[in-house]
Amino acid sequence: MDSFEEASIDIKMEIFEAIEDNYRGVIVNMKKEEPMDFLKFHTMLKASISYWRLKGKKGVWIKLPIELAHLVNAAVKEGFWYHHAEATYLMLVYWIPHEIPHTFPAYASHRIGIGAFVLNQDGQVLVVKEKSGDMTGTWKLPTGVVDEGEDIHMAAVREVQEETGIETEFVELLAFRQSHKSFFGKSDLFFICMLKPLNFTINKQETEIEEAKWMPMEEYASQSKVNQSELSKMIANICVAKKEEQYNGFSALLTTTGHSSKKCYLYSNNI
Fold this sequence. Notes:
By secondary structure, the chain is an alpha+beta fold. Helix content is 25%, strand content 32%. The chain has helices at 3-11, 38-54, 72-77, 152-164, 217-221, 224-228, 230-243, and strands spanning 19-20, 26-29, 59-65, 81-85, 89-95, 110-118, 124-130, 143-145, 168-179, 187-197, 209-216, 251-256, 263-268.
């Protein structure tokens, strides 16, 4: 029996409902409300792949909710592999034309972090000591990770409020660095944001922060652990230069994307 005849037979069998994407692929969104046993899933998957191959499809995406995790093994047996996972689902992919390399885009290639430089009217910088981490015992700038759907400068404002109770407004982006093979082997972006404090009484976070206070800028920059790290020293030097009005950073300019007109921010020097 040739492949065309085999595909024709499979078409007569039950196949998965799928959405066509813009790249000659299909997307299957499995429903947690529709329980399925291993055998039925495996049978439908084989028939569906044959049908999609006949239709000239390339990439296959299957989104499995966590409630259907017992079906993962059946998909892997058919040649699917993991693309990414979130708290409530796993995304599996399959490339039909084996003779050419797949073109699936990479997922979650970067983690984005922020450091907040908050300077008060007396030239003091807001610093914290964390209860755990690489910088334990050293005064450091408040830091954190940007949440999904959150703008970089707003993440800095949020992290400062959460760690110290200080409300702030964004002034400008001072610098950023990129590193690779970092968190779980992914790349890492870290942005240093300057913020203006709107209040000055510290109410530190109890779970993660050991201490928090306003410190003279020069005292912060002279700490031995800060100066032992080339990166930390460079960041401290930028903050000192900014305090002395010898450094210009980037403003957050509200604009729209060209293809969808969605609002976004361009970080740039003022023109």
